[in-house]
Amino acid sequence: GFNPSGKDEL
Amino acid sequence: MNAFRLVGDLCHLAAIVLLLLKIWKSRSVAGLSGKSQILFGLVFVTRYLDLVTNFVSPYNTIMKVFFLSSSIATVYLIYTKFKATYDGNHDTFRMEFLLIPCALLAIVVNHEFSPMEILWTFSIYLEAVAILPQLFMISKTGEAETITSHYLFALGSYRGLYIMNWLYRYYYENNFDVIAVVAGIVQTVLYCDFFYLYITKVLQGKKLQLPA
């Protein structure tokens, strides 16, 4: 998905 | 996604649900630190600002929405609906002693000097110490309701499981965030004293009582 910051954790 | 992080998120979810259940079933917020809940609300608000700009996955979005709404609802329940049962005299930890150092540290130590990144870093540092008012309150009252101790155990376990998730991602995904890891270790260490009491007392069927 669109995630520029690369942060994928809650 | 790995099992450590999934179970960690589910522990976090369970903690929040346990807290809401305790409040709703007992119609009381006795023993709860409203200040910790305000800090957790602030953690989610400052961390999930990218809710609409960053799409990671349906799971990520749904969990963010739930964490945001449930933490705001909890603060609402404590300070309005069940205000009469809020024990303000024992909830006296000075939040500014946490907010200011976390804000200053986030400005100085971060991955990128941009508003979003500084707010995310602030939320990481704040989450590490947000439980202190609650632990302080328990040390002042000398006890905690059993369901509150289950809440704390689930909450403390979640970040402990995240540490294992970070180890896993370091070795298998070559993914490592020193800020999140260091803050996560501090956060988990703060629960150690409580974990000891929980395992030696609550799991033996006793009430959580701190040695006088």
TrEMBL record, chain B:
GO cellular component, one term: endoplasmic reticulum membrane
InterPro entries named among the record's database cross-references: ER_ret_rcpt (IPR000133)
Residue intervals passing through the bilayer: 62-80, 92-113, 119-139, 151-172, 178-199
Localisation per UniProt entry: Endoplasmic reticulum membrane
Principal cellular location given in the protein's record: endoplasmic reticulum
Any single Pfam family the record assigns to this protein: ER_lumen_recept
A GO MF label: ER retention sequence binding
One GO term of the biological process aspect: protein retention in ER lumen
Bilayer topology: Multi-pass membrane protein
Keywords, comma-separated and alphabetical: Endoplasmic reticulum, ER-Golgi transport, Membrane, Protein transport, Receptor, Transmembrane, Transmembrane helix, Transport
PANTHER family: ER LUMEN PROTEIN RETAINING RECEPTOR
Family per record: Belongs to the ERD2 family.
Name the record gives this protein: ER lumen protein-retaining receptor
Species, as recorded: Bugula neritina (Brown bryozoan)
